[in-house]
Design goal:
Largest sheet of chain B: 6 strands, parallel
Number of strands of chain B: 6
Radius of gyration of chain A: 18 Å
Radius of gyration of chain B: 25 Å
Helix content of chain A: over 70%
Helix content of chain B: 55-70%
Strand content of chain A: under 5%
Structural class of chain A: mainly alpha
Shape of chain B: globular
Number of helices of chain B: 18
Shape of chain A: flat
Strand order of the largest sheet of chain B: 3-2-1-4-5-6
Number of helices of chain A: 4
Oligomer: heterodimer
Number of domains of chain B: 3
Number of strands of chain A: 0
Order of helices and strands of chain A: HHHH
Largest sheet of chain A: none
Chain lengths: 97, 463
């Protein structure tokens, strides 16, 4: 599994990229700043890789150290990313709202 | 069975992330989008934690606890004016995580996987993007925070040096792909990628930051996608591709709004060559007015368009500007805000600041929608914007910013410009709008001048 290249992945990437273009094009320019912090928080899903590296059986001390820092950095991003996006969005009010 | 549950949790997370972006399209559904993203993230983390491969939870939970303790105050205490800096530094954190995971994976596979196998290609791409985005974002942060000078830093042979560093990083990466056991070379690869990130951003000036931040957002996403390829994790591929697409589109929008190409932003060193070639200085006289006079004109207008720029953010004038909006609206003046896509230091910067100051978002109008209205507008009030209202972009084909879409403030019947002094803007180009017959300058700090106008409107209201 490790050696070979799986074309399925490229297929998934292609579809996700096209979907991403279509979705982002519809986002109102009003919300470009919160959009950026939201996608940044979503990208912090790399934490799943960091968790595996840190906690898997036979992890070397080096892997544990690198994984620890990666989990830390990704957690900071996802926690502050989601919270600050919501904080920004809360401020966007309608005239009579 | 357990494997199936893990797979299903990843699929659910993917769906929730897609919904999150879908709901971001409009302010009325956007907060629902954040909820969807949060739920997706929790499902992904739990799905991974229950996986049988995970045997040691201590370090993971400690790191997550510390991360939460750091992240929560970061989100709540950060002033809205610091959003561009926060975004830059969060790209650095995200990219650092990606790079470090890549490094750990590399050491894991170095003596196991066959030389030249796909996993090394994916890992090297992941780390190259991850590490260069990390240092590039730190530099962008330092420039936005003004720890570093915001002007472009240029030195002789810069492009040659950059190209050599990039070539060296690629060379070492390819060597490591085909001779992965050569672990001594690995730190060199990381060092070169980090160095390249620094060199990439130091020649870029402050006003180009919206494009750079968007591009770094894209790189961080693509790095996460590359990691998905290396680990065989489809969730990472999807999340990374969505993030990559988002950053890329924003960068394209920013470039279009300046009528420039990616290459020009990344390698242009804009603003350094401008001084000499900017053409003759305008020697028409400049008219100036006081805040009191301006307040009287505003009060008697039917329609006012306010054009904010980075100067409003620097002076932290958004709350006073909002008070001005409230005071004028009370007097039945129709007030709109014209938002240029590159106003400020990141995409959407002005919108966030004005929303924070309680300006309803219906009043924030985009460039293409406001321009047809400006010839019928009584007063255009320019607060801390310069290049985005420079008519020479439209009229002078030799201008450095020729072809850049502008907000046509000069077409309004009266134009007021709040400005500190007559210094040129970021592009270093003289702005003819200041010398026009229908323009009056209000010299001073944006916050102080706006406050004076608000005071005048409150006092002279006749009640």
């Amino acid at each position: 599994m490790v050696d070979g290249f799986n074309p399925d992945y490229l297929f998934v990437f292609m579809l996700a990229a096209f979907l991403g273009f279509q979705l982002i094009k519809r986002v109102s320019p009003l919300l470009h700043s919160p959009l950026m912090s939201l996608t940044n928080a979503i990208a912090a899903v790399v934490i799943v890789g960091a968790i595996t590296i840190t906690g898997e059986e036979g992890a070397t001390p080096l892997a544990k150290t690198l994984g620890f820092v990666a989990v830390l950095a990704a957690t900071i991003n996802l926690v502050s990313g989601f919270l600050i996006t919501d904080r920004m969005l809360k401020m966007f009010k309608r005239k009579d709202g | 069975m357990e494997q199936l549950i893990v797979q299903l949790s990843l699929i659910a997370t993917c769906a929730l992330f897609i919904l999150a972006l879908m709901w971001m399209s409009h302010p009325s559904t956007a907060r629902r989008g954040v909820r969807a993203g949060e739920i997706g993230m929790v499902i992904a983390i739990i799905g991974t934690l229950v996986h049988h491969e995970i045997v040691d939870y201590n370090l993971i939970l400690i790191a997550m606890a510390i991360g939460t303790v750091v992240g929560v105050p970061m989100a709540y205490l950060m002033p809205m004016t610091a959003i561009p800096q926060r975004t830059a530094i969060s790209h650095a954190f995200g990219a650092l995580a990606v790079g470090l995971i890549g490094a750990a994976e590399y050491y894991k596979y170095a003596h196991v996987a066959a030389p030249g196998s796909f996993v090394f290609w994916a890992l090297m791409l992941e780390m190259l993007l991850g590490f260069l985005t990390c240092t590039a974002s730190v530099i962008a942060f330092a420039k936005l925070q003004e720890i570093m000078p915001t002007r472009p830093i240029i030195f002789g042979g810069q492009r040659v040096v950059n190209a050599l560093i990039a070539a060296a990083a690629l060379g070492v990466a390819i060597t490591l792909i085909f001779a992965p056991t050569n672990t001594a070379l690995f730190p060199l690869f990381v060092g070169l990628a980090l160095l390249f990130g620094i060199l990439l951003v130091i020649p870029i000036g402050g006003a180009d930051m919206p494009t750079v931040i968007a591009l770094l957002n894209s790189y961080a996403g693509l790095a996460a996608s590359a990691m998905g390829f290396a680990l065989g994790n489809k969730l990472l591929i999807v999340a990374g591709a969505l993030d990559g697409a988002s950053g890329f589109i924003l960068a394209v929008i920013m470039c279009r709004a300046m009528n420039r190409s990616f290459a020009n932003v990344m390698f242009g060193g804009f603003g350094t060559l401008a001084a000499g070639s900017a053409g003759g200085k305008d020697d028409r006289p400049v008219r100036s007015a006081s805040a009191e006079e301006a307040a009287m004109v505003l009060e008697n207008a039917d329609s006012v368009v306010i054009i904010p720029g980075y100067g409003m953010a620097v002076a932290q004038a958004q709350h006073k500007v909002s008070e001005l909006y409230q005071a004028l609206t009370k007097k039945k003046v129709d007030v709109k805000f014209a938002i240029h896509p590159v106003a400020g230091r990141m995409p959407g910067h002005m919108n966030v600041l004005l929303a924070e100051a309680n300006v309803p978002y219906e009043q924030l109008v985009e460039l293409e929608d406001i321009n047809p209205e400006l010839p019928q507008t009584d007063v255009a009030l320019i607060i801390g914007a310069n290049d985005t209202v420079n008519p020479s972009a439209r009229d002078d084909p030799k201008s450095l910013i020729a072809g850049m879409p502008i907000i046509e403030a000069d077409k309004a019947k009266t134009v007021f410009v709040i400005k500190r002094s007559m210094n040129a803007g970021f592009a270093g180009i003289d702005n003819p709008i200041y010398y026009n017959q229908n323009t009056q300058m209000l010299f001073g700090d944006a916050k102080a001048v706006t406050a004076d106008m608000v005071k005048e409107l409150a006092g002279g209201g006749g009640h």
